[in-house]
């Protein structure tokens, strides 16, 4: 597999790992614009976007944590080959262009986009727009929620 086309530029020293856990603290969401990724295909740097799959060693999903300032927009539309994306809007207001429709989005909006949906996003609100994008292979999920979980014994000292 080719090396990732998008790399976090300035974040590696924040990762902690244990036997069954990897953790990173990105700090306050307002500070997300301190982080930068380099998009190798588009040859652009983007501030306010952090991909956490490689940071955490995740194996089933790519997730980005995002802050887009008022007036900001994704500089190009894109689609995906095999992955669906779930957009979860945490704060602020914006618009998503999906195929030939415009969807207003705001705190609490959750959208699932099929891989071939053509998509773009802008912040046309007055505040910063915060959102999380979860990218997973479409039709890959087997059991989920309580069907995948099971009860275990654990001595917790708190
Ligand atoms: Zn995407």
In round numbers, the mean pLDDT is 91
> Which value, in Å, is the CA radius of gyration?
17 Å
Strand content: 35-45%
SS summary, helix count: 1
Largest sheet: 5 strands, antiparallel
Distance between the termini: 44 Å
Question: Helix- and strand-based class?
Answer: mainly beta
Helix content: under 10%
Order of helices and strands: EEEEEEHEEEEEEE
What's the arrangement of strands in the largest beta sheet? 6-7-13-8-11
Shape: globular
Q: Let me know the number of strands.
A: 13
| Quaternary | single chain
Runs in which pLDDT lies below 50 for 5 or more consecutive residues are: none
Bound molecules: zinc ion
Write the layout of secondary structure elements.
Layout: E1 6-8, E2 15-17, E3 22-24, E4 36-39, E5 44-47, E6 49-51, H1 53-56, E7 62-68, E8 83-91, E9 93-98, E10 101-106, E11 110-113, E12 119-122, E13 129-137
The structure holds zinc ion.
Question: What tags apply to this protein structure?
Answer:
158 residues, mainly beta, 3-stranded antiparallel sheet, 1 helix, 41% strand, binds zinc ion
């Amino acid at each position: 597999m080719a090396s990732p086309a998008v790399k976090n530029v300035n974040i590696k020293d924040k990762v902690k790992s244990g036997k069954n856990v990897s953790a990173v603290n990105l700090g306050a969401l307002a500070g997300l614009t301190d982080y930068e990724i380099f998009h190798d295909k588009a040859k652009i740097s983007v501030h306010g976007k952090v991909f956490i799959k490689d940071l955490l060693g995740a194996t089933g999903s790519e997730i980005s944590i995002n802050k887009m300032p008022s007036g900001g927009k994704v500089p190009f539309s894109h689609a995906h080959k095999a992955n669906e994306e779930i957009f979860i809007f945490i704060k602020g207001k914006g618009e998503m262009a999906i195929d030939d429709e415009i969807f207003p989005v705001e705190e609490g909006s959750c959208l699932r986009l099929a891989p071939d949906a053509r998509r773009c996003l802008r912040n046309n609100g007055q505040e910063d727009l915060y959102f999380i994008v979860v990218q997973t292979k479409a039709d890959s999920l087997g059991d989920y929620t309580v069907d995948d979980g099971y009860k275990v014994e654990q001595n917790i000292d708190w």
